[in-house]
Amino acid sequence: MNKKAFIFDLDGVIVDTAKYHFLAWQKIASELGIEFTPEHNEDLKGVSRVRSLDIILDLGNIQASQDDKNKWLIQKNEDYLSYLVNMNFSEILPGVTPVLQYLKENNQGIALGSASKNARPILEKTGILSYFDVIVDGNDVTNAKPDPEVFLQAANGLKILNENSIVFEDSVAGIQAANIAGMTSIGIGEASILHEAQYIFKDFTFMDMSFIESLIKK
Ligand code: B16
Ligand code: MG
């Protein structure tokens, strides 16, 4: 039986936490008099917390001291965490659990490759932590996507070659990272945005198990 590495991004692939990131950033932005829309939020997907703040400050042409930035980063995360308190399995995106189940039953390597520093509590709260053999998150990497570091660490942790690794991603930077790593890139979302991906699905409900099977046998 072939063993492949299946590496999942978190936000936008397994759970839709983008809406909570948005609410928390919007609060900071409005305090600073910056207009921050859902369209702007698209640019923060897959981007680290520190870089996200810089993008928002740039929107408002605001230069800030490191002390102020640190204060806003803490405030944003506390607010974001308050939205996660009541999170449970119902927030897992459609079609994700059957794919995890199928991969587990077929003895495949399963890893998380996320920019988030809150990945573990989210996997715990949604009840899917035990599916993951390896977790690489924002606490483990120094270089953000499109740098492939997060996915390279995940494949390495599973002891599987990059060419035998498959990445599920919702962000352009994440797809680029997977491609740079020489892995199979699968975009989850809009084809018009994720066109650099080797395969694209609107969400996991559009993915047949025969497709997963073909990836395993490839
Ligand atoms: P945190 P992913 C990313 O997660 C999010 O897409 C991005 O919007 C967020 O800023 C980043 O995590 C950092 O998250 O503030 O929780 O450390 O898509 O790479 O799973
Ligand atoms: Mg994502």
Overview of the structural elements:
The protein has 218 residues and is α/β, with parallel strands linked by helices. It folds into 2 domains: 5-15 and 88-217, Rossmann fold; 18-84, Putative phosphatase, domain 2 (DNA polymerase, domain 1). Helices cover 43% and strands 11% of the residues. It contains 9 helices and 6 strands; from the N terminus they run βαααααβαβαβαββα. The chain has helices spanning 18-31, 38-42, 49-59, 66-84, 96-105, 119-125, 149-158, 172-180, 209-217; strands at 5-8, 109-113, 134-136, 165-169, 184-188, 199-201. A 6-stranded parallel beta sheet has the order 3-2-1-4-5-6, with helices on both faces. The N and C termini lie close together (11 Å). 39% of the residues are buried. The mean pLDDT is 96. Bound molecules: 1,6-di-O-phosphono-beta-D-glucopyranose and magnesium ion. 1,6-di-O-phosphono-beta-D-glucopyranose binds at residues 9-12, 21, 44-49, 52, 77, 114-118, 138, 171.
Regions with little confidence, pLDDT below 50 for 5+ residues: none
How many beta-strand runs?
A: 6
What average pLDDT do the residues reach? 96
Tell me the strand percentage band.
5-15%
For this structure, the CATH topology of the largest domain is: Rossmann fold
What is the CATH top level name of the largest domain? Alpha Beta
In helices, the fraction of residues equals 40-55%
Estimated radius of gyration: 17 Å
Q: What is the topology, as strand order, of the major beta sheet? A: 3-2-1-4-5-6
Oligomeric state, counting identical vs distinct chains: single chain
What is the approximate shape?
Answer: globular
